[in-house]
Please model this.
Amino acid sequence: MNFLNNQRVKLDKNSSLELSRRQFLRATSVGGGLLIGTGFVSVALPVNAEASSDAPVFNAFLKITPDSKVIVAIKHMDMGQGVSTGLTTLVAEELGARWDQVEIEFAPADATRYNNLFWGAAQGTGGSSSIANSWQQLRSAGAAAREMLQAAAAAEWKVPQAEINISNGVISHGKRTSEFGALAAKAAALATPQKPVLKDPKDFQLIGKNIPRKDSAAKTNGTAVYTQEIQLPGMLTALVAYPPQVFGKVKKLDATKAKASPGVVAVVEIPRGVAVVAENFWAANKARKLLAIDWDLSACETRSSDELFAACHELASKDSHVLESKGDAPAALKNAGNIISAKYEIPYLAHATIEPLNCVVKVDKDKCELWFASQMPTIDQQEVGKVAGVKPEQVKINSLYAGGSFGRRACANDYVVDAAQIAKQLPGRAVKMVWTREDDLLNARYRPMAVHHISGAVADGKAIAWQHHAVAQSIMRGTPFEGFIKGPVDGSIVEGVNEMHYAIPNLQVQGTEIPIKVSTLWWRSVGHSGNAFVIETFIDQLAKAAKKDPVALRRELLASEPRALGVLNLAVEKADWKKTLPAGVTRGIAVHKSFGTWVAQVAEVRVNADKTFKVERVVCAVDCGVAVNPDVIRAQMEGGIGMGLSAALGEAITLKKGVVEQTNYHQYQLMRISSMPKVDVHIVPSAEVPSGVGEPGLPPIAGAVANALFAATGKPITKLPLGDKV
Amino acid sequence: MISLTINGKAHQLDIDPDTPLLWVLRDELHMTGTKLGCGMSLCGACTVHMNGAPVRSCSLPLSAVANANIQTIEGANSAEFNAVQQAWRELDVVQCGYCQSGQIMSATALLQTNKKPTDEQIDAAMAGNLCRCATYHRIRGAIHQAADNLGRKA
Model:
């Protein structure tokens, strides 16, 4: 998500949080009060609650048990991107811990200690910001504890603190040694150093190394705890009958048969539907089918996808808000001889996490407790607090592993609110609201569909002009995030276009919002997910018009972007760009920056005689600053490529008279293993501050593949998904 | 009353015979390693072994598994399973992890019938298991590695 500094977020009518540079700096400094003395509340996690009891607390992020287990609080949601490994690495590195003595515990919802430093006073995960915002904070947390252990050892052994060494989980002075646990209680009682000294990067033992993930064991023996796994005494399961279209309402309900169905405890209406609450999933599922509901669909969308695309094209053909202007693109185009134009169409996409969304809520007098994977705990606390009639701080969230998210769980007024609406009607009972796959796709919040019109010009072998108009639905308009919109148009519509990294001398970017009555949301890499495809395929069209190799033109246009050139050149070298490929195989390249991280990808695609094609290999180069864990970075590039390819090949949510046509995976087809190419990832060595890797691997792939197909057929590709034939 | 064996233990179950095996495991027996993904045998997150073969437990009513021998990730303990699990850890295959119980059960079944699968055979055997994090590249690698490790021990 594009939560940037210096922006204002309006979380609800009553509170607005000012995110200022000053606040950001204050929060990132160690003396800012984030680390000092505030122990973290033990999370009632079934997996490790006992292990962490009575452990001396060093700061909000770190405690050490008497038997020398180092427990790190993970303030971000782990949706598979590897934060429980990466964040832990930062603390363990500076502490001097052994990797196998370190354990994780998800932090509770508490923005006073666990806010995202890039988002001001809000706790949350997104925008590939987890490592980036925690880089100084968590290293400082580890370094402070290291100095406290050194001080405790110095006092115990009556030697100068400066002579105490801590490394690989051992505190030592000469031949004298101690494990952490023996000194933890004394050390934790000391004052927290205000300015702990961080390690010189040349001394890193864990950062930059391929150390194993912390979640592999639990996720390979069935014991990792996701929301579905929560079992509480007396817990009930709820399934909701939702209207066939979002924004529908109940007109008439007859629940007689459902209530009489075995195992049903209650049928309750909530603002977005009707919930059947039963003793278990299957009883609720059977009874839900017995509900007789007339829906009021008067507020719902009525158009089909082709009509919506036509409406977007209509808007794109007219002048609109100019969001960026450099030189004079309209004049340059008027005078140019060689003009290339393209009209792009990009579909709605669903996150389609394999874990359908779900949430466990228990509402009591003056408190409310939730168990789920919360991507934005601060917003969830506010919204659930309003529903349950308690203060946000009385909403306790037990954070669990997320079975995927890709942005889906960072949403206001959604499934969490529905679960709370049900639970408040059954006070004192824990209720697990479960979505089926059909519920999940129907109530998905889609990556917006979009239309782009571009005209470009080349002269003397150079790209001289680019006029771009993007039309899409706003993600934030009309939501609690509306305060993030700067200027007349939601920035995600032109994300990546309006910070065009290619040095086109005459550039104009226009953007227009189109209101559509469909719920949208940030989908892994947000606007970049489609916009990079548009930019990169158009660059190849310009290259062809300029009679230039696509790499040569990119090098020319990126001459003043050293990090862009770095990934471009590395990918080109590792892919042997100039080497002749076997007959039937072509290459395509794409380069894109998102969330501060540069990625270049070369796709090798085989086109068969029957026009089917297969992506055989992808070579990827990434520059994300310091590589905290190279293997996790590689995994995120592989995953970003795979998910981006899945979308590029076959994903589209379509509407027929306003109704979403895809109900399950037979209609919303995710890529399967047989379409996954071989992937080679190369990391540019860097000493820059780390940026994220969760999203940036995704944007380039669709363009790289489309460019390979363009090279094969000479036909420009301007529409996604690509389908299975050229 | 329906009888079946799960992970070597005999069970007598007096519940709605329509209940899919997935929900028998999860809601009745609290064995939650097997996951709900689609409810239509499209994603493979619910894969368990029935009489040694991989099946989708979300679409198998209890009445259809009477007297069957069921194995779930909680009880899997064959040489192939252990090799697959170990390779999954060595390669750090998992990301969100939600689909991985099903992936591991499918991979185990593959190695039980094919000691040295090719990429194409892996792709065919694993085609029923979706991974939204797209860990497919490592899944392929881990199955090869598990096969290699088993080959060395044999």
Q: What stands out?
A: DSSP finds 17 helices and 29 strands in chain A. The longest strand of chain A covers residues 462-472. Residues 130-157 of chain A form the longest helix (28 residues).
